[in-house]
Design a protein that fits this description.
Shape: globular
Helix content: 55-70%
Strand order of the largest sheet: 1-2
Oligomer: single chain
Structural class: mainly alpha
Distance between the termini: 18 Å
Radius of gyration: 19 Å
């Protein structure tokens, strides 16, 4: 169900002063959030960038995947992923394994060290979020979580796909 189909919500028209002000605030605050996330990643594990943390998390969730799958999933340039993967391999956090179904393909997997680092950073990040959200009510937390899910789902729906122009 799309936001415009929800009977309990009023859909506002873009371009009104209230909507424009809200969108501007959201954009500004999300930019600040992204900036803080990048900065705090270095403090939680100095050798692990936010991109590296994210890639490790995806490898854990997926049980392993190809570098091209990572690039596609995160809409990153293949050379960016290649550099990140090389650094993670050098640090012993991931390893390449031959795909048992297609011996021409190499699949990236977390090593035990990679799992340990990911778990450590995840604990630190969750602790930081819990600290920041400590004064929030359960209702506020659930509402905020649902808004983030809704926002990110819309981004996935609107993401350009092969054969589909951006904005469709």
């Amino acid at each position: 169900m799309k936001a415009s189909e929800r009977p309990d919500e009023t859909v506002v028209t873009p371009g009104t002063p209230a909507v424009d002000a809200a969108v501007e605030t959201i954009q500004r605050e999300m930019t600040a959030f992204a900036r803080r996330a990048r900065a705090s990643a270095g403090r939680m594990h100095p050798e692990l960038s936010l991109v590296s943390y994210t890639l490790l998390g995806h490898l854990e969730e997926s049980g392993g995947c190809r570098a091209t799958d990572l690039a596609s999933h995160y809409a990153l340039d293949k050379s960016t992923v290649s550099r990140q993967v090389a650094a993670l391999e050098r640090d012993g956090l991931i390893e390449r394994r031959v795909d048992p179904e297609d011996h021409r393909v190499q699949v990236l997997h977390l090593t035990d060290a990679g799992r340990d680092v990911l778990a450590q950073v995840t604990r630190s990040r969750r602790g930081a979020f819990r600290e920041r959200l400590a004064g929030w009510s359960e209702d506020d937390l659930q509402r905020f979580a649902s808004y983030l899910l809704r926002y990110n789902a819309a981004a996935v729906e609107q993401a350009p796909r092969p054969g589909r122009p951006a904005g469709d």
